[in-house]
# Entry
Amino acid sequence: MTTYDTAPRPVPKAKGSIPTTVRFDPSESHEIDQWILDLRGSTGVRWDKAEVIRELLRMARASDGILRDALTARATRADA
# Structure
């Protein structure tokens, strides 16, 4: 079983933080919004999109490499 560091991390302060833009098409954005609302409902945690993206990227960098390996496999399939 994989476990991840679930300790809450503070949201970066505006001063000194580095913005990153992620663009979604309208239908994908709606699906993501709904997924985050479902996540809020099932966990009781009020996530915003930026927090979810930061957490997913932290998980992808985890030492077990499970998500990194999945991304690598996806990239390999896309190149085929």
